[in-house]
Structures are given as structure tokens and as C-alpha cells.
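# nightly structure sweep
# worker-07 picked up a monomer target from the shared queue
# config: single-sequence mode, recycle default, output format = C-alpha cells
# input follows
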Amino acid sequence: MERLQKAIAKAGVASRREAERLIAAGRVRVNGQVVTVLGTKVDPERDRIEVDGRPIRTEAHVYVMLNKPAGYVTTAKDPQGRPTVLDLVASVPQRVFPVGRLDRDTRGLLLLTNDGYLAHRLTHPSFEVVKVYRAKLQGAISRQAVHRLRNGVLLDGRMTAPAQVRVLSRSIDSSWIEIAIHEGRNRQVRRMAQAVGFPVIELVRIQFGPLRLGDLASGNFRYLQEVEVQALRNTVLRRTGSR
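# output follows
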């Protein structure tokens, strides 16, 4: 038995907080009866749970790591008809969705799942899940620029949080850096690099929370091991306990 809002969140219908609002609004039925009391206990395998008249699916959760190539958009459907990351995981029988976004030209680690509860926490800014990127920048990055990236730059009228930055190589024409951030602003690494005068030429995400891309080939995916899934859960649980 588990709380109704948790069962809805685990089914990927909504985050737990959103599920609570659905329950309070009288939009949830259990075995045909409207339930508005938060914390009502249900058995997801036996009870029929409906949201807005539609039964929720209680299929097993799956967690997929994809090495996203450039040229794919991180959406379920694209009005312009461009290929999406879901095209690359079409053989996964469950309906999965991306956890966060990578822009079209960015490559690397993308997590997909049908676990809405965990996905919400992994992407919510308050949980500060670290993302690590390797970026090829135009020009030989200066010490001053590295210092600014580490201490935050002004984007949209507010400073970015401090970042961990390591210079991997530097030449007259280009530099490679590794940068770790925990915010999720739109195209953040690209905009930070542009703000300090060294535009991004290539960008690849190599780590998401405790997950590392490793040697997974571009365009390929694999299912996470149970120990990796538990590591993701522990990441947000530790953060929950510290707030």
C-alpha cells in the first residue's frame, strides 16, 4: 500500500505535488469513487486509479541512458519534423520521456524514464543535481575567463551559481574545458561561454548526477543497472534531507 499521490507520480502522470493538486480538485477516482483526501492509501496493482477519467498505468519503471548525437531534439514530437531522441529508443517497449533537455547540437548523456516522481526531482533546481560537460571553445581561454565561469556570470539579469571548471587543453585556435553545473537554465553552458568571450564549438555531457557516459557509443542506449538507479534515488534523497 502507498499514498495515492505517490502512486500517481510513480505512474508518470504528474509530479507528487501536481498529483496532490489533482486529488484536492476532485479529479482522481479510486475504484470509481472520487478521492479528495491527501494521503489515502491505495494498492496500485489492485486498485483502479483514474485521473480525469483515464486509468493510470502501473507498468514497471524503466531507466535508459542514451548517448545523444547532434541533430536530435529532446522532445516527444517536433513540429518542424526534425528527428527526436525518442526515435533512438523506439525499441524500448515502455513509453519513456527525457529527463531534462539537451539542445539539438549538444551530444552526450541523456536519461529517459517513465518514472515521473524521480524525474521531477532530478530536474528541479532545488535538488541541485550536478551535470558535467566537456566543451570545445573558440580561442585560447584566458585565466580571467576561467575565473569568471567559476564564480558565475550574468545571464538574464541574475548570476549563475559557481561552477567547477577545469582546462583540459589550450591552443591558439581552441580550448577544451570540463565544466560542472547544477542549474538547468536554457543552453546555460553555451551562454556562459559566450558571455566570457569564448563561444562553444562542440559540447558533450559526460555526467548526470552519479551517472557517467563511459564508452557508450553515439546513438546507442542501455538500461541502467539497479545500483545506478539506486544511486540516482540516493542523490535526491540526500538533498531532501538537507533542506
